[in-house]
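quick one, two chains, predict together pls
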Amino acid sequence: MPKNNRKAVILLSGGVDSSTALALSLKNGYQVNPISFEYGQRHSRENESSRKIAEHFGLKLKEFSIDLRQIGGSSLTSEAAVEDHSPEEIGSTIPNTYVPSRNIIFLSIAASYAETIGARTIIYGANSVDYSGYPDCRPSFVNYMERALQEGTKIGTEEGMSVVAPLQYLSKGEIIRMGLKLGVPYELTWSCYRGGEKACGRCDSCILRLKGFMEAGSPDPIEYESLPEFYQAFLNKL
Amino acid sequence: MPKNNRKAVILLSGGVDSSTALALSLKNGYQVNPISFEYGQRHSRENESSRKIAEHFGLKLKEFSIDLRQIGGSSLTSEAAVEDHSPEEIGSTIPNTYVPSRNIIFLSIAASYAETIGARTIIYGANSVDYSGYPDCRPSFVNYMERALQEGTKIGTEEGMSVVAPLQYLSKGEIIRMGLKLGVPYELTWSCYRGGEKACGRCDSCILRLKGFMEAGSPDPIEYESLPEFYQAFLNKL
């Protein structure tokens, strides 16, 4: 394998962060191989977004199916209701939308896919500034996971393995501002945990997203069932 | 949760190592919750063994299904033939039975299950003495994976998370000698990669197993299609 191996696998959830990480990685010269997960999530509509975004960038999407309802333990993979939080509360505790070890499982499967196609980089749109408080988005986790993959995989042992989290320390506003410059088709993305016809505008994921668009000074192109006051006030000032 | 939380999840493959690790963990006072994986493996017969072993010890087996043929990359999950090796060759390179990142994926799912049932210990029958050369059995991997799970899970963040590999530094002979004392029903276990009616007696997994029984000075109770010379010689001396 060439020393300058730019082949990478990216976890593409169809949301704002992973779509922006994808556009950034392409700009940075990676040969990007997106992977998405059908895991029995309430908002499996996000996979439709993953498909459209991959298509937009002319990339082949690997769709992996793993039914995490076999484990449960989250409002995203069981009948439990999605809990909403105020913008101030978000990130201060681990909410019930947390799917136990979900991103650890996804990174492991991404590593398996990476090994199989000869990639030694995994791109992970984790963010620890404007995030839901999920422990698997924190830098300390990303660092140890990278070391585990370096030690525990064939390609990691032979050539090394990197887990790159290019958005780790950016605010949601900074991510979106960058994404707009990179031409990310945010109208194709999906963030809402509820997965209805329109985004709910009330769940943690919608709130973080709308706060980000407000900070970026640009209205969110997708449709919402209802809008939080802070965002309505932002729209009125435009 | 009580400070003295002895609830544990164990990866039970139905083979010699995980079955022995299970018996040892019970003896050490863990409340053991075994999990097995139907991953599209050629030798899915091992899951039958997992069921029988869990039943033998009066434990409820969690059976998780994840189709790793979606990734491929191994002779165990594709049409590629299982390569055999001499006893001397085994462990010196990574063989084509290596399933990319398999145990990393399994440990991640075990962590998800552990979180859901409130366990903060994962027992992993990895061995790095008499092993097939898989990188995900090495102590350095186990250590980093433990750190990743501590940082990346809710239970790890709140209470800590341990990955215990009690057989890590034992030879196969030592494992089996211990297991015989612990009453492990080795007649119920399955190791062969080929997954036929009888164990093949030629694949790396059969060779390591037979070598172990020979070293333990006790004949293997399961049936084989053919026996390697070294083991035949051992039987003749009994």
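The longest strand of chain B covers residues 31-38.
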